[in-house]
Design brief:
The complex is a heterodimer of chains A (248) and B (94). With 248 residues, chain A is mainly alpha-helical. Chain A folds into two domains: 10-85, no CATH class; 109-220, no CATH class. Chain A is 65% helix and 4% strand. Chain B is globular and about 30 Å long. Classes of the chains: A mainly alpha (248), B alpha+beta (94). The A-B interface holds A 195, 198-199, 201-202, 205-206, 209, 213, 216-217, 220, 226-241, 243-244, 247-248 and B 6, 9-10, 12-14, 18-19, 21-32, 38, 40-46, 48-51, 55, 57, 72, 76-88, 90-91, 94. β1 of chain A pairs antiparallel with β1 (24-29) of chain B, so a sheet runs across the interface.
Amino acid sequence: MTNGLGSFAAKPERQSAETGTAQASTTANSLALPEVSHAHPIANMPSRESAVMAIAPVPVDQAQQDRIRRTQRALKAVGMGPLKDLASIDQEANIDRTPLPPSLPPLRAGSNPEEAFRMITNAFSTDSVNSIPTDKLTGAADEEQKTLPKPVVSRGAFNSNSGSSTTTKSTSINNIIAEFAALKTEVAALTAKVKVLEGENFDMLKKVEVLVQNDERRKFLGTDSAKTPFAINVSFREYCAMASFACK
Amino acid sequence: MSTVPWQVLRASDLANSFPADGATHRVQVHAELRVAEVIRRARVKGNIEPKDSLKPRLMVKDLVVGHGMMLGELGVTKDEKVAFVYGAAEEEAL
C-alpha cells in the first residue's frame, strides 16, 4: 500500500496513520482498563509522579514495580529492611519444603476415588450396560466372577476398534458386582447374627422373668401396695396387614 | 378413638371373638407395671421370639395403648382381658 500508490496517496496515508495510532491508543486504553480496575484503589489514586503520566496508560509491570518500590521505601522509613526471599526464610527456620513421596498405591481398584468415579461412569455408559447379560446379574458371587469375563473376550472380536476400553469397562462392572455380592452376604451374616443374639437374649429373659415374678410375689403378695401382683388374661394374635375379613 | 384403621378393625374383632381365637395365657402383673414390661412378660409366657414379633402392641379395652403407660393408669384390674398383637416378619416392610 505504501510504495505502489505514489505521492498522491501520501496525505491520506498520513491521516490513516494518525487515526491508526489513535485507534491503537484507544485499544491500549481499553486493554489497560481492566488491569487498573483490578489493582488496589490506593494504587489508582493520582500521586505526584503519576499525575504527569496520567494521560498515557501505564504498563502493568511498571506499575507493579512502582508499588514494590513504594512499599520498600515505606519499610525503610519505618526501620525494617527489604523484604526477604521465601527461600531464605525457609533456610533460617529450617523448614523442609521438598515434596512428599507419593502415597502408596491403592489396595484395590475401588479404594481410589478417581478410579471409583471412572468405574461408576463406565458402568453407567450404555455400551458397557448392554455388554452384560441381565441373567448374570442375579446369582452367587463366585459364579459371576467365573462367568462374566467370558463376554469380554467375545466382545473383543466384535469391536476391534476399542478392545482395551471395553475390557476395562467390563472388568470394572465385574468389580462392582462382586463387591455388591460381598456386601449382600455380609449383611445377611450380620442379620443372622443379630437374630441369634436376640434369641440368646430371649432365653436369658425367660429365666430372669421367673425370678423377678417370684420376688414380686414374695415381697408384695397380701399387701395393700400398688405393686400387689394380680393376673390378667392375655390373648395372643398375630397382626394381619389386610382388612379383618381377609384374616378370618 | 384411633387414627389407624386396622386398629379399629382389630378392636371390633377382639370384642366379638375373645378368647375363642388365638392362645390365651394368664400373666402376672401389678398396677405400677408398664405396658412394655407386660409385653415382655407376655412374650416369655407365650414363648414368642422377638424376631417373630417385630411390632408388639397391647390392646386394653379395645384400644392400643402406649408402651410407657402404667397399668394403674389404664385401669387394668384383676382378670382383665387384654390382647397382645404382634406382627410377622413381613410387617417389616410397612
